[in-house]
Amino acid sequence: MTTAAVGSPRTYQVRTYGCQMNVHDSERISGLLEQAGYVRLAEADDNPDVVVFNTCAVRENADNRLYGNLGHLRPVKDRHPGMQIAVGGCLAQKDRGDIVRKAPWVDVVFGTHNIGSLPVLLERARHNTAAEVEILESLDVFPSTLPTRRESTYAGWVSISVGCNNTCTFCIVPALRGKEKDRRPGDVLAEVRALVAEGVLEVTLLGQNVNSYGVEFGDRYAFGKLLRACGDIDGLERVRFTSPHPKDFTDDVIAAMAETPNVCHSLHMPLQSGSDDVLKAMRRSYRSERYLGIIDKVRAAMPDAAITTDIIVGFPGETEADFQHTLDVVRAARFSSAFTFQYSKRPGTPAATMPDQLPKQVVQERYERLIATVEEITWAENKRLVGETVEVLVAVGEGRKDERTGRLSGRARDGRLVHFATGATGQPGASSQPGAIRPGDIVHTTITYAAPHHLNADGAPLAHRRTRAGDAAEAGRAPRTPGVVLGLPTVGVPAAQPAPTTGCAAH
Q1: d(CA 105, CA 463)
Q2: Going by DSSP bridges, is the β-strand pair 407-412/389-394 parallel, antiparallel, or unpaired?
Q3: What is the pLDDT of residue 479?
Q4: pLDDT > 80? residue 161
Q5: Burial class (CB in 10 A: 0-12, 13-18, 19+), 127
Q6: What is the DSSP string of 167-214?
Q7: Which pLDDT score, from 0 to 100, does residue 286 have?
Q8: Which residue of 263, 318, 366, 408 is most buried, as measured by CB atoms within 10 A?
Q9: In this structure, are residues 83 and 76 in contact, taking their beta carbons and an 8 Å threshold?
Q10: Distance between CA atoms of residues 224 and 178, nearest Å
Q11: Read out DSSP for 216-249?
C-alpha cells in the first residue's frame, strides 16, 4: 500500500539546503520527477509520497540538521506505508552509505554527479523494498541535459560550469563536486534563449568559480565573451553571475560588465579574509592589495557598482592583528552587503587538522565586531541612495512583512533589496485589480529610507511596466525547460539547440 490513492500520481516534495548551485539542482530534481509522472505537493502538506533532501556539506551543523529532519520524518513514514525518502547533494556525496546505516528508513541516497538517476533509484527501491545507494565519482551527465521545473517566472539560474579546480584549505566542495567541467558557449546561450522565450527577464550565470569558465576548452577570455553574447539576446533585461574568484578576475570581464547594457553593475566577489597571512593559509592565491585593486578598477568603470562579498572569521591561526586587517579591507572596500561566517571545521579539509584552532568565544567576539563594522558601512552606502530613482524587478518572498505593511518587494539592478509602496488601494499587488503590480513586473520608484540590509520606497511608483513574466506569475505558470542536450565540451562548434551559496558556489 502506498500513500497515493490507487490510480493517482505519486506526489513529491524537495527540501533544499545550501548554495545557489543546490537551489538550481533542486529545480532539476523537480523537473525529473515531474517528467516521471510525480506531482508536486505544497510544503504545508505533510503527507507526500516522496521527500527528497538536497543537502549541503559546507557548514559544520549540516549533518545534525539532516539527521534531525530525518528523525522527524521517521514516525511520519511509519504512519504512511509506501512513503519514500531520498537524500542527495553534497552531504550524500560525502557520507554515502553511512546515511542508510544511521537512518535505515531512508530509501535512496544519490550523489552530486548522478542527479538524473533519482527516478530509477526510487522505482528500484520500491520494487526491491531495499535502500538504493548510488554515488558516482565523476559527472554522469551535465545537469543541464536534465529537464527543469523553474521556481521563478522572472529569473533563472543557468549553470555554465560545475566543479572547482581550486584547493582552498577550508572548502570541501572540490571533493564533492569534482574538477571543473565547462559547458560550451552555444549550450549556455541556447538555455538562456529558452528561458527568455518563456518570459524570463533575468538570468544568473552560475558556477563554483564562474570566471575561470573556459579552462576546459583553453579560452581564458571565454567568460567576458559570454557576458557580451548575453547582451545580444532580445528580451533579456538583466544578467548576473556568481561567484567569481579574485585570482581569475580579468580586465576584459570588467569591460564586458561596463559595456554590455543588460549586465547588472553588481559583483559578488568573496574576500574570505583581509589578512595576507590567513589568505596564504587558506590557499587563496591573491592578497588584499590585489583584491582591493580589482574593486578600484570595477568602480572606475562602473561608479554605481554594488559589491558584495563573503568573509570567514576565526580561521585557524588567525590573530587579532589578522582580524584587524580584515576590518581594514572591509572599510576600504565599502561593501553594499557581506555574507559573514564563523569558521566551521569540516572533516576531510586541510584546515580541519591545522594547529591553533581558535576558541569559540574568541571567534564569536570577532564575528560580532565584524557584523557591527559591516552594518555601519552598508547602512552608510544605502543612505547615499535616498532620493534616487531605481528600477525594481518585483519578486516573490523577498519581504516577509509586505502583507502587513502594504508593500511589495524586489531587487534593484544593483542587487539591493527594495520594499516599495504600490500606490494602490486594497490588497497590494492583487491580480484582480486592473493594472496591479505582479511578480515579474518592472517598477521605477524613489528611495525614501535606507536600512543596513534594505531600502524603502514609500511613495507611489513613478512607472509600472507589465511583463510576460508578470503574466505568467498571474496565471500560476512556472517555466519548464527540457534538457539542453549538448552538455559537456565536445570537439568543434555545436549547433544551436532550441530550448536553463553563501555557501559552496561562493569561492
Answers
A1: 54
A2: antiparallel
A3: 67
A4: yes
A5: exposed
A6: --TT--HHHHH-S-EEPPHHHHHHHHHHHHHTT--EEEEE-TTGGGTT
A7: 96
A8: 408
A9: yes
A10: 24
A11: TTT-TTHHHHHHHHHTTSTT--EEEEE---GGG-
Q: Which triple of cell numbers denotes residue 279?
A: 589568505
Question: Is residue 180 predicted with pLDDT exceeding 50?
Answer: yes
Is the distance from CB of 419 to CB of 392 less than 8 angstroms?
no
Contact 56, 128 (CB under 8 A): no
Q: Is the pLDDT of residue 176 over 90?
A: no
Q: What's the confidence (pLDDT) of residue 383?
A: 98
Cell of 472: 505568467
Distances (CA, A) of 437 to 92, 155, 280, 427, 429: 41, 17, 50, 11, 5
Q: How far is CA 11 from the centre of its chain?
A: 25
pLDDT value for 29: 87
Kind of pairing between the strands at 108-110 and 84-89: parallel
Closest by Cα among 394, 398, 479, 500 to 437: 394
Residue 484 has pLDDT above 50, yes or no: no
Residue 147: per-residue pLDDT? 63
**Distance between CA atoms of residues 397 and 21, nearest Å:** 19
Instruction: Give the pLDDT confidence of 105-134 residue by residue, as tens digits.
Output: 999 999 887 888 888 899 989 988 899 898
DSSP 134-160: E--SS-SS-GGGS-EE-S-SSEEEEES
Cell numbers describing residue 1:
500500500
Q: Are 35 and 483 in contact (CB under 8 A)?
A: no
H-helix or E-strand spanning residue 328: helix 320-333
Burial of 354 (0-12, 13-18, 19+ CB in 10 A): middle
* Cα R_g (the chain), whole angstroms: 23
pLDDT in tens, 6-17: 557 899 999 888
Contacts of 468 (CB under 8 A, 6+ apart): 199, 440
Backbone angles phi, psi at 505, to 5 degrees: -80, -5
Q: What is the pLDDT of residue 505?
A: 41
Of 231, 224, 204, nearest in space to 415 by CA: 204
* Distance of alpha carbon 430 from alpha carbon 247, whole angstroms: 47
Our CA angle for 306, 197, 465, nearest 5°, is: 55
Closest alpha carbon to 110 in 122, 101, 126: 122
Residues 318-364: tens digit of each pLDDT: 999 999 999 999 999 999 999 999 998 887 899 999 999 999 999 99
CB 330 within 8 A of CB 373: yes
